[in-house]
Design brief:
The chain is mainly α. Helices cover about 50% and strands about 0% of the residues. The chain has a single domain, classed as Non-ribosomal Peptide Synthetase Peptidyl Carrier Protein, Chain A, CATH 1.10.1200.
Length: about 100
């Protein structure tokens, strides 16, 4: 079974992948309060897609089978799981732990 610490590592690794594609002055800080989407968010629509793909790959590696996180309609809600790194971690913990 996957644990919260594993989820944090998965999200951190996905953010690392996204940061590799971003200019140095636009890197996403790996802090639970870092905004991902919305008015304060760091990611545009392509960044969100890249993050979700990275999360699915890394979660799949951890769990040993294919994971699809985009099947949940609440994922993209205005006050949904992608608001901050912390809300994303909490969402994934609830779903997979």
């Amino acid at each position: 079974m996957i644990k919260k610490g594993d989820i944090i590592k998965v999200v951190s690794g996905a953010v690392d992948e996204i940061n590799e594609l971003r200019p140095r002055d636009q890197l996403i800080e790996k802090d639970l309060s870092s905004s991902l989407v919305g008015s304060e968010g760091s990611l545009d629509s392509l960044g969100v897609v890249n993050l979700l793909v990275a999360l699915e790959e890394k979660l799949g590696e951890q769990l040993g089978h294919t994971i699809i996180v985009t099947e949940d309609e609440d994922l993209l809600a205005v006050d949904g799981p992608l608001n901050t790194i912390g809300t994303l971690v909490n969402y994934l913990v609830e779903r997979f732990c």
